[in-house]
Design brief:
The complex is a heterodimer of chains A (about 250) and B (about 300). Chain A is built from eight helices and no strands. Chain A is mainly alpha-helical and about 250 residues long. The chains are: A mainly alpha (about 250), B alpha/beta (about 300). Chains A and B meet through α1, α3 and α4 of A and α2, β5 and α3 of B.
């Protein structure tokens, strides 16, 4: 047996994925898909029912799908919390380094966020089409990077950034609990929520994002500035997540 | 494949103010089955977790195949620790657990895994959360053996297994080890059942190394001296002068039996026989009990 392979600092190999990363990424995506394939039709069904219910008592004057963008945030957030505690120890016990596991989780988080963003974009496009055919005004309730339901690329960017922020927030809170235990983990929840709050504030999306920006009396920068700023914030948050998990002790389950 | 060598150098592991492992040093030769013995709380599981890269030592270091295993991709991929706690994802079915291991373990043997699954009577469709304690242990054994890792560590994996299943595990382990030699560390409290597998023995006591020796040599160092009490006492007193340690004594009427630990050569045995004393072998389990009973004194 040779004695080679010094420990690489940081993530080292960038996007070059080894076998372990591919295996874990596929597993995480598979795990997500098992639930998502039911959540997507359920989400559409609920939006349709809400639309029918509202239209039966008063005319529809604004986007229903816009509000449907709230629950995916929290679902992704909850999934990220759970995945840290359930999958990281199992991956390490199967001989995977934490670095490789974090790389796989990062890739999975980006891909899942993009998939959910695509789902949201499809919903907006379909909603805009229906509203146009019925002559309803498709008014958006809060500011966005996109102007209407057909403004696909900014919409995709906005939802991807928001969902990724919630994934990182969930990962941070899961990481805080796993690393520091329930008491200190609970105290650190506000810190874990920071990425999500920061991106909501930056993009001023959602009622609290819009409220935050109005409360601070900040004028909204241009879309490219917001996207770049969001990427910087998410990169910093990801660095914190990496620091929390890179040498975390894998405890023995009782 | 000959397996990974394992070394600890001045290794300490603390949990807060609690010292779990206290400045120990040892070397485990590659390609052997080592028994890791010790009472509850002696530091066995903590030591294994450091060897598997699950945590860093507090001070000192461990070397697996010559390097620090923590976050070393090559060594971690070649190390398999199966803990008594299982470490399965509760919603996974047994088949999915095996698929995941097969995808990640470089030396995984799917045919051997299937053979073990059949031998232990496990169903591939059963969810991990629905497995009994013994079935979870059996699945752990399948994961540990079929991985064929150069360093395989099984930490009290027999929990909940009935006797026939435990013996099936011992048989499978030995047969597979003969065909695919590697470094195996077995931590167990059922010493009398499993000692026949050991080629080396590492005994921990209160976080310190009590014994690290070849298993046969260790067995040879434990003996019982039986005979008339006064003759036994005189004989043992001469042995103690030569460095042999008396571990314990039992008395029945005028007959006394003293358990001793140390090198007893053939001359000494002849001398005992001439005095009308009987020198018997001591099972490893009895030796372990005596050693850990008087462990603090021995360490001192």
């Amino acid at each position: 047996m040779s004695t080679t392979t010094p420990i690489r600092p940081g993530l080292g190999s960038g996007l070059r994925l080894a076998r372990a990363e591919v295996v874990i990424t596929r597993r995480l995506l598979n795990e997500m898909w098992k639930v998502t394939r039911w959540l997507w039709p359920a989400g559409v069904l609920v939006a349709v029912i809400v639309g029918i219910a509202i239209s039966s008592v008063s005319p529809i004057t604004q986007s229903i799908w816009e509000n449907a963008g709230q629950w995916p945030r929290w679902w992704l957030f909850a999934m990220a919390i759970a995945l840290v505690a359930t999958h990281l120890p199992v991956a390490v016990l199967h001989g995977v380094t934490r670095r490789a596991a974090i790389r796989a989780v990062t890739l999975s988080g980006v891909l899942v966020s993009m998939a959910w963003a695509a789902f949201m974009v499809c919903g907006h496009v379909v909603e805009q089409f229906i509203y146009d055919r019925l002559g309803w005004p498709d008014v958006l309730d809060t500011p966005h990077l996109f102007r209407d339901g057909y403004d696909v690329l900014p919409m995709f960017a906005e939802y991807t950034l928001i969902f990724l922020a919630y994934v990182i927030s969930g990962g941070l809170i899961g990481g805080f609990y796993y690393r520091f235990g329930w008491f200190r983990g609970t105290l650190l929840i506000p810190g874990g929520l920071l990425p999500a709050v920061a991106i909501e504030g930056l993009l001023s999306t959602g009622w609290y994002g819009a409220g935050l920006q109005q409360g601070l009396s900040v004028s909204r920068p241009s879309a490219p500035v917001l996207v770049v700023a969001s990427i910087v914030v998410l990169s910093l948050a990801w660095q914190v997540l990496y620091l929390v998990l890179r040498d975390v002790q894998i405890a023995n389950k009782k | 494949m000959t397996g990974f060598q394992v070394q600890a150098v001045d290794l300490s592991i603390n949990y807060g103010n609690t010292v779990a492992v206290d400045r120990i040093g040892f070397t485990l030769e590659p390609g052997k089955i080592h028994g890791l013995l010790g009472r509850n709380g002696s530091g066995k599981t903590t030591l294994l977790s450091v060897l598997a890269g699950l945590r860093r030592p507090t001070t000192g270091r461990v070397l697996v195949d010559g390097v620090d295993p923590f976050e070393n991709a090559r060594v971690m991929a070649g190390t398999c620790l199966i803990r008594e706690s299982g470490d399965l994802i509760a919603t996974d079915r047994v088949g999915r657990v095996l698929d995941f291991a097969a995808a990640l373990r470089p030396d995984w043997d799917a045919d051997f895994a299937a053979q073990l699954i059949a031998r232990f009577g496990l169903s591939l469709d059963k969810k991990a959360s629905a497995l009994s304690r013994g079935q979870r242990s059996a699945l752990g054994v399948v994961l540990g053996l079929a991985a064929r890792s150069p360093l395989t560590m099984l930490d009290e994996v027999y929990l909940g297994m009935d006797a026939p299943t435990r013996y099936a595990f011992y048989d499978e382990l030995l047969a597979d080890y003969v065909e695919h030699p590697r470094t195996i560390i077995l931590s167990s409290h059922l010493i009398d059942e499993i000692e026949r597998l050991f080629e080396g023995v590492l005994v921990l006591h209160e976080g310190r190394v009590l014994v690290n020796d070849d298993a046969d040599a260790m067995r040879g160092r434990g003996a019982s001296v039986t005979g008339p009490a006064d003759v036994v006492d005189q004989f043992v007193a001469t042995l103690i002068v030569d460095g042999v340690r008396a571990l314990g004594a039992q008395r029945l009427g005028s007959t006394k039996q003293v358990s001793i630990f140390g090198d007893v050569d053939s001359d000494t045995r002849l001398q005992a026989r001439a005095l009308g004393l009987e020198i018997g072998s001591m099972p490893l389990q009895d030796l372990f009990v005596h050693l850990t009973d008087s462990g603090r004194e021995i360490l001192r």
